[in-house]
């Protein structure tokens, strides 16, 4: 808060308000909640686990072109991993993930279409001739923290 040409600490403003019989300003609420993802069934402790969370069905599963999407990556150093998307606003979301074993930032395929690396989706949505539709992987985020468990699947 500015007062004249100098900054007045917020604590001082709150103390003055209380002394004058007013209420202290309400604490600032975070913009959203956490979505914690437990990733299980990782086949090799190498590379990284990359995930994206999007509220946009058109951007799913790659999160391309979605300014609201969040992307995370952690080392794949065991059979499981944990990712936490922070400050997620209420709404409907879906998560896609990749076990990027060679850490090249993309899913490697055989014959141009069969994934050679592990993948997974929120709500453990199944793959059938391509990634699941958004609505199959979608889940709701409200005011309380959300947890998802995603099992990594390997085609080859």
UniProtKB/TrEMBL annotation:
UniProt keyword list: Signal
Leader sequence segment: 1-26
One Pfam family hit: DUF2141
InterPro entries xref list: DUF2141
Superkingdom assignment: Bacteria
Identification of the protein by name: DUF2141 domain-containing protein
UniProt source species: Paraurantiacibacter namhicola
UniProt lineage: Bacteria, Pseudomonadati, Pseudomonadota, Alphaproteobacteria, Sphingomonadales
């Amino acid at each position: 808060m500015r007062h004249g040409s100098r900054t007045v600490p917020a604590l001082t403003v709150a103390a003055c308000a209380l002394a004058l019989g007013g209420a202290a300003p309400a604490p600032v609420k975070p913009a959203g909640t956490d979505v914690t993802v437990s990733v299980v069934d990782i086949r090799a402790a190498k590379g990284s686990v990359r995930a994206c969370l999007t509220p946009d069905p058109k951007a799913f599963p790659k999160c391309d072109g979605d300014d609201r999407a969040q992307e995370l990556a952690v080392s794949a150093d065991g059979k499981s991993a944990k990712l936490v998307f922070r400050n997620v606003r209420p709404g409907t979301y879906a998560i896609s993930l990749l076990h990027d074993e060679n850490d090249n930032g993309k899913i490697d395929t055989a014959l141009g279409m069969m994934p050679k690396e592990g993948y997974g989706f929120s709500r453990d949505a199944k793959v059938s001739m391509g990634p699941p539709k958004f609505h199959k992987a979608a889940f709701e985020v409200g005011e309380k923290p959300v947890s998802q468990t995603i099992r990594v699947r390997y085609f080859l």
